[in-house]
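Anyone? Bumping this.
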Amino acid sequence: MINLILWLLARMQPLIRAAGADYGQLRAIVQVKLMMDSRRNTVNLGRYGKKANEESNNAFLKTLAIYAVLGSLLSIGMLGTPEPGVLFFPLTLQFAYIMALCALTLISDFSTVILDSSDNQIILPRPVDSRTLWLARIVHISSYLTAIALSISLGGLLVVSYRFGALAGVVFLVMALLSAVLMVFLTNVFYLVLMRFVSEEKLREVINYVQILMAILFYGGYQILPRLMNTNEMFSRALPHEWWHFLIPPMWMAGAVNLIVKPAIDTTHLTFLLLALTMPILGLWAMNRFLTGNFVQQLNSLDQERQPAVRKDASGMKPVSEQNRGNLVDRLSGWLTRNPLERAAFGFAWRITGRDRKFKLKTYPQLGFALAYTVGMSFQKMGGMFYLFALYFAGIYVMVAQLQLSVSDNYRASWVYGSAPIRQPGDVLVGSLKALITKLLLPFYILIASYILYQFGLDKIDDVLLAFSNSLVMLMSSALMSKRYMPFSIAQDALSQNNTSRGILIAAVLGVVGLAHFGLTYLPYGVWAAIPVSVVLVIYLFSQYRKTGWESVEMGG
Amino acid sequence: MNTDQPVIQLQNVFQSYGSTPVLKGIDLSVSAGQVVGYIGPNGAGKSTTLKILIGMLPDFTGEVRVLGMDVKTQSLDIKRRIGYVPENAALYDTLTPMEYLNFLGQLYELDPAHIEHKALELLRLFQLSDHAHARMTTFSKGMRQKVLLISGMLHNPDVIFLDEPLSGLDANAVVLVKEIIRQLANGGKTIFYSSHIMDVVEKISDRIIILAQGQVVAQGTFRELQQQSSGSLEQLFAQLTGSDTQTGVAEEFIHTINQ
């Protein structure tokens, strides 16, 4: 793949020079970046890097294959049957899908690449100018994004070519690639603007939340949108063109393809074509021209900003809000824990889960998904089974968080567990798990429960209570069954795969328990009777977990 | 090069991060062939000065010239002729030393074959021949530091900026690097380095500049500095940077531990 990209890059040499970058340097940077991506075990390319032990991007290729299959299904469904006359709207949806996926990928997985300040020390002292570095990053990202856009549109390409001829296919392909370019442009504008107006210290924080929000929106939109839209009608009727259609990017692309497919060579379609062709290129050109001048400088200040912040802390001028929060944590841990060690672990886990961006990125979207799922499902009025499902579903997501609790980028700091005289590591495990339950599971449960009580009536309170207690049972047994790690003590890739099998086992048990719960709802007071049993079980499991000795704890790194 | 002209020149340089001032009016001038030790307590502004000198921080006020060129407007030309070895062992460690050095050579637009040959030779001299094609993820801190040192000098720069150049090196390598620095300076190159190890600074510097709280508090040869007050550089440093009460602090520290 690297050679292919470099070959393409060589073809674009004049273009790159025209953009004001140094081709040799750009090529060197892109080559090295791609090489490093392929070697890293835990890539900061989010989902794509999982385990690439060999020098190939297997994980990435797998993702591409999945995108290709999904994209094909979508394309066959949407573009397979409609008459040429009404194809405009399905095409719009198709391109919107491509753009959405590109934007999502850019924001969730590649923001680290765009804003990477780790090579400040390496590349900035060298004679590389701002424009070359910026373009190198754009090329680096685009090479992945092009692959993604291609794989999504593969199905559409085949369908369109088969139905309307090769020319239509080619136009479709070009439009798909331009969609990707347009998204590169838009996300970059987003970042550059953000870099300008948000203080650098806050920037990463803001992006983190945007990532979480995007993930939730994506999952949520996937659940909710199809139910809200009356799609049938839109698929069968030709869409009258309105002036504001010219403001919606996917419509440009759709219009351009429609021009060939329909065929309709009129002002409207020609305008669409013109917009589709010029806007992405124009956007990149304008950005290259006007916005990247001090890109390097701003990247550099990303790093700098940390210094004064640290200094302020050292001089004891802690922000007041931080102190208040500290008091809350102290009070909570006072109520909920039994001994000093447990208490320390509680506060420790509470604070780090609130500040570690990776932890938030891994867990919060899952919770958001569960929430979107609950709301989405409730639209369908599935009746009796539904709310139980939603309640137990929440439990699964907290299990993911529990697994994630042992992971940290600063896993090397876990030497403290080794050097401190901890007799029973179970106390630390219980304390940190309690923090997780209080911080993630409880508020989340209250949210879902109140929605369910509101929707289905207050008499469901027994179900909510039992489901909560059962979720704790599940969480505890999952914690007991899986390998036990001290909190934040291992690297991401050390989290071994064999936990998957346990995960499946737990899902099965969860299903059985959920079914049993469902059965109990048919017995008078059956649920109420089960609650004490479940609670006793929780207490028993907690005491077991607390007894964890050093022999059953795996120390990473 | 005109020998009368200073190689490094800073005039009235101010720099702040946000509202925190870091450099408060630095005036410096260094001529060719000197080894300059730039020392100061943590947070005094050493690394900031270095970053300004290599053109990484253009938003300072004042005037800075390196090799007669203005760092604000000619930073690319300056970067081509200077070398920089950062302090925290920042390198792409998934690469092998050869790949890394070749990459950097390309950034300087040097001939690949030439770089290849030179890098291999330099690695051999640092006793890294066996590791020239191994990924640096497994390297010790000393090995990384050696690669970093090579990467800062590969393009034969006229001025070399070093930030803690000896960190992580074993005793033999320290001797070797000290000797390299000396001979580079004898050959007319200018070495500007910051360090916390006073013994080393005292021995290899032609000139010592002491920075405290963003200002130059003393400069000159070690002899000249000794005239202000006798004793080792360590003692002098403590006096000038306002931390000559270390004995008292140590006592207090012990006392607090014993509580």
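Late reply, but here is one note on the structure posted above: Chain A touches chain B at residues 22, 24-25, 27-29, 31-32, 35-36, 39-40, 118-129, 297, 300, 304-305, 307-308, 311 (CB under 8 Å).
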